[in-house]
Design a protein that fits this description.
Helix content is 76%, strand content 0%. It is an all-alpha fold and 520 residues long. Among the domains are: 101 residues, Tetratricopeptide repeat domain (Serine Threonine Protein Phosphatase 5, Tetratricopeptide repeat); 73 residues, no CATH class; 61 residues, no CATH class. It holds the Pfam family PPR_1.
Length: 520
């Protein structure tokens, strides 16, 4: 009795040290226990294996398992579940399968937790078919799937884009009288919101309210964010007031999302009230909150308050990110204070901080719109930091001045440098040529854009291309009659609207062309 009690006390000590991540202390306690005649058991080592999997690594955990076996203690299903969970956290699928197979070879029957962990690992790595086979194995092995099994399945289906299948599973669960948890509803609502299916998410929210469960702050915040991302401001505000009336607290992100939505609609007073309510509620503002406040001050023309906010951020230990400065520079430019915007840009450049492309793009766009086109072009040419938004902004501004030739040259130079440009910029130039009566110029530009993109596809990894699903489905049917069908492939490829189709079909033409040249 004394020995059993002592081992239990030893296990409590080991578990406590493991939770505190003091694995060295846990190891020392085991050694001291052995010296005192208190021998560790499988529970002791299981706590240690789990801790090593979580905080050190799977190899260190395996070393503990080998020590277990040397000590004459046989690992059980809990030991291997810890190893499975550790491999799954690191997305090591092959190792997870090896651990699962090792369990079976040792005669250890996997339990429901083992199957759930393996299923979750397959879903994490984007293999929903294999994950569903694991779910079928649960039933074939006479195990009853529990709530965790169904929640894992629902979550995995949603994350891999199978929201319709997730909804079907949800309906089947309800039809068969399965008792669902609040987390089940939250998983489904989150998946639908991320897929942009706001209407379906709101319908599930209504079913949740009718089920007897009370939606929590996570449920409402998920739908709230989706409403604003989908530009459904009225529905978002409706959720916001509903949360408030039911006494739910918001997190900082929810407050900032609502304040940003108010600001976009020109409701600056309401946006300010929202941010004040957040500060009064005791929520510590983060960088997103400060950027939201900066945006509000700039829209209201309160630049003194904006500069004071920069000082407050510094006092609180926050470093301004690129968007903080970009918001301020954009606000100064829109207020007509281009010189102050330039001074601020020089100030942040002189601090030796990282290249601030968003701020430079805001300055460039603001200078051009303020009527200083030549100076903006000079800034553009002198700057070494350019991205797709820099080029797109300049192309749009040139199109507004009806300088379509200059815009087309800039667009092509961007593409030739291997950079992308916004589709809206391409359309603006082509539409500009057509509206000005230069339809031939529009066609020539489209041909040049296609040719530049086509030449870029020669760098595609051809081995990857041969194994590609898209190549097998699209390029092969066009090339089935031999390499002389290259013109047909190109014609069909560029008739497709899908950019991915164009990439793989055009790149395979390059592959064939190179192969033909090597035979000559």
């Amino acid at each position: 009795m004394c020995s059993i009690l002592s081992t239990r006390l030893l296990n409590i000590c080991i578990s406590s040290f493991c939770k505190l991540q003091r694995l060295d202390k846990a190891e020392a306690v085991i050694i001291d226990g052995i010296r005192l005649g208190v021998l560790p058991n499988v529970v002791t080592y299981n706590a240690l294996v789990d801790a090593y999997c979580r905080f050190v690594g799977i190899e260190a955990a395996y070393a503990v398992v080998r020590r277990m076996q040397v000590a004459g203690i046989t690992p059980n299903v809990i030991t291997y579940n810890s190893l499975l969970a550790g491999a799954s956290r690191q997305c090591q699928l092959s190792l997870s399968l090896d651990i699962f197979e090792e369990m079976l070879n040792l005669g250890i029957s996997p339990d429901l937790w083992s199957y759930n962990t393996l299923m979750h690992c397959f879903f994490k790595l984007g293999k929903p078919d294999e994950a569903y086979r694991v779910f079928q194995d649960i039933i074939l092995n006479n195990l009853s799937p529990d709530r965790t099994s169904f929640n894992t399945l629902l979550n995995g289906l949603c994350r891999n884009g199978y929201t319709d299948n997730a909804l079907m599973l949800y309906r089947n669960l309800k039809r068969h009288g399965c008792e669902l948890e609040l987390i089940t509803y939250n998983i489904l609502i989150d998946g639908l919101c991320k897929a942009g299916r706001l209407k379906a998410a709101r319908w599930i929210l209504k079913e949740l309210e009718n089920s007897g469960y009370i939606p929590n702050a996570i449920t409402y915040t998920t739908v709230l964010k989706c409403c604003f991302k989908s530009r459904k401001f009225e529905e978002g505000l409706e959720i916001f007031w509903e949360m408030k009336s039911k006494g739910f607290t918001y997190d900082a992100f929810a407050y900032c999302t609502v304040a940003g939505a108010f600001a976009k609609r020109g409701m600056l007073k309401e946006a300010n009230d929202c941010m004040e309510a957040m500060l009064k509620s005791g929520i510590s503002p983060d960088i997103v909150c400060y950027n939201t406040l900066m945006n509000l001050y700039c829209k209201e023309g309160k630049f003194e308050a904006a500069y004071k906010l920069l000082d407050t951020m510094a006092d609180e230990g926050f470093e301004c990110d690129n968007y903080t400065h970009a918001i301020l520079i954009d606000g100064l430019c829109k207020a007509g204070n281009v010189e102050e915007a330039q001074r601020h840009m020089k100030l942040i450049s002189s601090t030796g901080s990282i290249t601030n492309l968003p701020a430079f793009n805001s300055l460039l766009d603001g200078v051009y719109k303020a009527g200083h086109a030549e100076f903006a072009m000079k800034l553009f040419k002198l700057s070494k930091m350019k991205d797709e938004f820099t080029y797109s902004s300049m192309v749009h501004n040139l199109c507004k001045e009806r300088k379509f030739r200059s815009a087309s040259k800039l667009l092509l130079s961007c593409l030739k440098n291997g950079m992308n440009i916004l589709k809206s910029a391409e359309r603006a130039v082509i539409r500009g040529f057509r509206d000005s009566g230069f339809r031939r110029g529009a066609r020539e530009l489209q041909s040049k854009i296609r040719m530049v993109k086509f030449l870029q596809y020669e760098t595609v990894d051809h081995e990857m291309l041969r194994e590609s699903f898209w190549f097998r489905q699209i390029a092969t049917p066009f090339l089935c009659h031999g390499p002389w069908n290259i013109p047909l492939v190109m014609y069909n490829a560029f008739m497709y609207r899908s950019e991915r189709t164009k990439v793989f079909a055009a790149a395979y033409c390059c592959l064939l062309r190179n192969k033909l040249q090597s035979h000559r």
